[in-house]
Amino acid sequence: MRQARNSAALWAATGNSRGHEVIRRRSFLAVLGGERAGTRILLQEPDPDAHELAELTELAGRSAGPVDVEDPFSSTDLSHLGMRNWQMPIMVRPPAPVPAPAMEVIRVQRAHELQTAEQIVIEGFELTRFTPYRPGEMFPTTLTEQPGVDVFLAVLDGEAVGAGVTVVHDGFGSHYWVAAPSAHRSRGAGRAVMLGSLAPMANLPVTLTASRLGRPLYESLGFTAVTSSTWWSSQ
User: HEC profile for 172-214?
Assistant: First the structure.
């Protein structure tokens, strides 16, 4: 439930900063983007009723671009949408001290820093929908002005080598979009980003949804898998 709420906070902030329509219902939040950003739907309850499910289906069907649905409860069958699906673990870290990172980690404050983080995330997650690159399309300049949202960069020898986003909402923290350029993977950039961005949230429980490759790192930082989230995607 906490992961659901924090994901909704992130995507509402992202949608608002992009100027996209944000729809809130009891059981889901939807952000309606354009041809490249697509539609993002986040289930907020494990039991959407027939009317909510019909609206969700209609929103997915008329999307101008790709559709992504996140179900942290893994309880709603969306196979009728004809999309592929997979599961990833939701992990939680209790409040605890955070060691210092091995490299400098900065909180993004300037437009060029945000663009650097944006490019790292697009490359790291292979978000081909955002290529060719258009500055500010994924991370608009107003993103870090949204309540509870921060973007971080890991810097080594003057070069940005990792990026990540955090959200603090209702007493919980969450991590998103932790990435490193291909030239710096498996060289400590991801760990540095995590440590540097965890530090301001050390007194909070923190959640994240882990990829298979990222899970060992998160476990080493004190995160424990508690359940599985089901993701559906048209791509």
Answer: EEEEEEEECCHHHCCCCHHHHHHHHHHHHHCCCCEEEECCCCC
